[in-house]
Write a structure and sequence with these properties.
The protein has 249 residues and is an alpha/beta fold. The protein is 30% helix and 17% strand. Strands 4-1-5-7-6-8 form a 6-stranded mixed sheet. Strands 2-3 form a two-stranded antiparallel ribbon.
Amino acid sequence: MVNVGSDPSVLFLITARSGSQGVPHKNLRQIAGLSLVGFKARAAQKCKACKRLIISTDSAEIQDEAAALGVEVPFTRPAELATASASSESVLAHAITWIEKNEEHRYDAVMLLEPASPFATGDHLSAAITLYTSRKADLVVGMRAAETSTMFIGKQTESRSISGIVGNMNTTQDHRRQAHEPEWTMNGTFYLIGWEAFKTSGKIYGNPEKCYGLLMDRWHSLEIETPEDLALADFATKQSYLDLSPWKE
């Protein structure tokens, strides 16, 4: 447990496998001249709490990119943890186990950084650590506003019926967006996870009462899963919807 007012020791961990179904070589693709791995590296390096930054990857090419950016490459991720079906929990567990076994060291928390959601800044990461410490949290994640209320979301049957959705809607007479409380969802930009909490539960999302979210705007919450997403991110930087100064050297 981290005491309020203390500075937790945080291992910053970029996770980037070689394969990608939606965008080939995604983690090395560039936006405004910087790779997605590079955005994560620069953000971590701009965060004052970052005393150590490493990467977990199966790719020699990604390792070279990371090393050129000043990221430590202490190990190569096993092939069985670099498949599309490998979970973030399994990758995190491997890194924690490797550190404890080979370096005989533990941290208070891990800042897990996935390049597919590249636009968290160093300030976002610092704010997450402040929230983590003040709330004595097990988890802090990046969040964005949900585009559609859960009232208007549901399953469609094989006959194309939307009875479940309409049933939800009929619980209120006011369907205006403004009439409903804002809803939020995870944006994948970062996961600040308690070291011992994760070891105890084996889950990123463990005790619900100790999970917190840092709200971020839509542009910093962009996620790259398709070529169209990559094009949108490039557009956002060129049109200055995203200020690139937080990632400049």
